[in-house]
Design brief:
Elements: H1 2-18, E1 24-29, H2 34-45, E2 51-53, H3 61-70, E3 78-82, H4 90-98, E4 102-105, H5 113-116, H6 119-126, H7 128-131, E5 138-142, H8 146-152, E6 159-164, E7 172-180, E8 183-189
Helix pairs in contact: 1-3
């Protein structure tokens, strides 16, 4: 009964997303850095757009379903979705629900190795986000992470941009990074 009820809620959330065809949906995943990236991105985009982000650690299918059903409104222009995974298929399931047009991968690390079994399985699961993007989608990838760069070589169906600090050939590179008690500042070179 619980599985049936959960499926109903997920389908209801999926219908709500489909009723907002102009909503820009950005999915963020990675072994770490998801939450910080979500908040920083929302801070930047909210200067010109009405944004909704998944709050706290609402990064599972049911958590995101609840956000869609209770918080997403017709005035939102951007929906930033943090996507967590504890096993293969989790990101694919969330992406199927929200249908992002932009995907961001922050890093591939050893978090949840006990449930994934290998670093390769983690990498493949994180890239479920990029595989779900439409042909007019955009993959934003951490060019400083060798695992991300390596996995991105096989991605051909969407435009890819690389961001980072140290790698060469980045599309967006943070420079002149300063950190003090009031916060962090940097310049972006394109």
């Amino acid at each position: 009964i619980e599985a049936y009820v959960n499926r109903w809620y997920v389908e209801d959330a999926r219908k709500r997303i489909r009723r907002s065809p102009d909503l820009v949906i950005i999915g963020i995943t990675g072994s770490y850095g998801k939450t910080s990236t979500k908040f920083i991105l929302a801070s930047v985009l909210s200067e010109e757009k009405t944004c909704l982000i998944t709050p706290a650690s609402y990064n599972t299918t049911m958590g995101i379903t609840k956000v869609i059903r209770t918080m997403l409104g017709p005035l939102h222009e951007v929906f930033i979705v943090e996507m967590g995974a504890r096993q293969p298929g989790d990101i694919r399931e969330i992406a199927s629900l929200v249908q992002p047009r932009i995907g961001i991968i922050t890093a591939i690390g050893d978090q949840h190795l006990e449930t994934f079994g290998s670093r390769e399985a983690i990498q493949k699961t994180k890239f479920e986000l990029i595989a779900s993007l439409p042909s007019n989608g955009l993959a934003c990838l951490n060019g400083d992470d060798p695992a991300v760069v390596n996995a991105a070589k096989s991605i051909t169906h969407v435009r890819k941009v690389f961001y980072g600090i140290e790698a060469s050939g980045l599309n967006y590179q943070a420079e002149r990074i300063k950190t003090d008690p009031s916060g962090t500042s940097f310049q972006v070179r394109t």
